Amino acid sequence: MATPHISAPDDAFAGSILLPGDPLRARYIAETFLEDVAEVTAVRNMLGFTGTYKGTPVSTMGTGMGMPSASIYITELTRFYGVRRLIRVGSCGGISADVKMRDVIMAIGAGTDSGINRTRYNGWDYAATASFTLLRAAADAADGMGIDTHVGNLHSSDLFYNSYTDALAVWQRMGVLAVEMEAAALYAIAAEEGAQALAIATVSDHLVTGEQTSSAEREGTFDQMVKIALEAIHNLEGVQPAP
After folding, report:
1. Helix, strand, or coil (residue 117)
2. Whether residue 140 lies in the annotated active site
3. Strand residues in 74-138 grouped as ranges (E)
4. Contact of 150 with 99, CB cutoff 8 Å
5. How far apart are CA 149 and CA 141, in angstroms?
6. Which of 50-54, 88-92, 122-126, 159-163 has the lowest mean pLDDT?
7. What is the pTM of this model?
């Protein structure tokens, strides 16, 4: 059924989906990595596609930037289209000294300065964590491809331009690897809807060193991240998704 933000028919999406923020990256994933691809939605130019990877059905769709936008699409995909494995593939800003430019991070969990998960969790603090099944499959896939990764916590921020002067010090003190803007919402919605979720992110800039990558430099590490996600989904084909 079509929703207010997705125009696809009921069976348009695969059970597993890759979620970049940028809808053009969703198109790139579809055209570069998938076979038998069909565009299934384009409402507000938030493009979505379904195809196969090594014979495994996979979809990809943009979510926009930030938790409010991502929450709309993640909720509709899980609640109305039956998507049960969701992997965010995006960028992040490095915080830890152990994290270098273009490194790949897999998020065990995500803290947040947003109030959305407290609203969802009756005013309490919710532990927004990844699906261990997806995390293990992605870690195994990365090892199999010889790609080094970091596994730890992210911080999902509502503010890209954060004026709080002590925010970085707090994140460093708590051992946060990097900051981004969607993972905490993804994990909470997946839990609420009985789905599996994982956030994988590449370091596009570093908040401590001030280093930055160009858009061209980001493409190579984006491809690595997408391959990890696709291999994880492919290797779980036939395994019943459970939260």
Report:
1. helix
2. no
3. 85-94, 104-112
4. yes
5. 11
6. 159-163
7. 0.96
